[in-house]
Each structure stands twice: as structure tokens, then as C-alpha cells.
Automatic annotation (TrEMBL):
NCBIfam families, sorted: PRK02487.1-5 (NF002696)
Gene3D superfamilies: Haem-degrading domain (3.30.450.150)
Family, as annotated: Belongs to the UPF0303 family.
InterPro entries assigned: PduO/GlcC-like (IPR005624), PduO/GlcC-like_sf (IPR038084), YBR137W-like (IPR010371)
The protein, known as: UPF0303 protein CP967_22010
Database matches in Pfam families: HbpS-like
Length: 159
């Protein structure tokens, strides 16, 4: 898993590439299980959250995670819901302009966090319908874990 900071164009390409043909309860459970497996292999102290609309379809907290990770999940998820892009892409766009999300978004940092780890669940023909979020690692690693899981999920379930 690469944890180097991707460029804006790389982040946009990830979102385009990782669009799903469908996403429901079974897909959320399978993706969540895959994320748990990947995190356990790495002994990653993360919490995982998958939502479709306002409904939480999957949640797991692994050893070493805490309620603080759930708060981060909510803050990062709200960025995806508001902007329709990954929380990492939103934060990277602000940094590319020479500022930060907290300084320039005019949004409450206790409610929104443009840190890596929340990714839009996009469905072909429908657009963004949910989120998949990981919290517990440095932001580049949270983001990379979600991307890796979505890549494997697409290959295993829709190829």
C-alpha cells in the first residue's frame, strides 16, 4: 500500500476508475469485510464506516481504534457528502491553492475534516450515493487503504 501523496489528477482518476455498477447491502458487507481483512493483515488500528445515503450499512472498530476515530469518520464523511469528492481530494485542492480547508472553507472544523480516508461510493448512472471511510492511520494511508480495497472489490465482484 503506497502512502505517498497523490496529485489532484491522480485523485480524480481514482474516483473515475472506482465507480461501481451497483451498491447495496450485500456489496457494503463484502467491501467492509475486505477492508477489515486488509486492516487486520497490517495490524492497522482503524475504524471503518460504509454508508448509502444516510444509512450506515457497515461499521467495524479494530483493536487500537477509539471513539475518536468515529468522530473523524463523521467529519471526513461530511466533506464527501458536501463536495461529492474524496475528503483527501478536497483537502488537496485547498493545499494546491496555498491554503488549508480549515482556513478557507468557512466550515466548522468540528463538523468537517478534509483529511484523507473518506471516499465517495459512486454508481454508474446514479453518481455519488454513499461513502466508505477509514480512520486511524495517517491521512495518506487511510486514503490508500480505501482505494486498495475498492480496487480489489471491483476486480473480485464485478470482473
Amino acid at each position: 500500500m503506497s502512502a505517498t501523496a497523490p496529485t489532484i489528477s491522480e485523485l480524480i482518476a481514482q474516483e473515475r476508475r472506482l465507480t461501481l455498477p451497483r451498491f447495496g447491502y450485500d456489496e457494503a458487507y463484502a467491501l467492509g469485510g475486505l477492508l477489515v481483512s486488509l486492516a487486520r493483515e497490517r495490524h492497522a488500528p482503524v475504524a471503518i464506516d460504509i454508508r448509502r445515503g444516510a444509512q450506515q450499512l457497515f461499521h467495524a472498530a479494530l483493536p487500537g481504534s477509539s471513539a475518536d476515530n468515529d468522530a473523524w469518520i463523521n467529519r471526513k464523511r461530511r466533506v464527501v457528502e458536501r463536495y461529492g469528492e474524496s475528503s483527501y481530494l478536497v483537502g488537496t485542492r485547498f493545499r494546491a491553492k496555498g491554503t488549508t480547508f480549515d482556513e478557507s472553507s468557512r466550515l466548522d472544523p468540528d463538523v468537517y475534516a478534509a483529511h484523507g480516508g473518506s471516499f465517495p461510493v459512486a454508481v454508474e448512472g446514479a453518481g455519488v450515493i454513499g461513502t466508505v471511510t477509514v480512520s486511524g492511520l495517517p491521512q495518506a494511508e487511510d486514503h490508500a487503504l480505501v482505494v486498495e480495497a475498492l480496487e480489489q472489490f471491483l476486480t473480485r465482484h464485478f470482473s
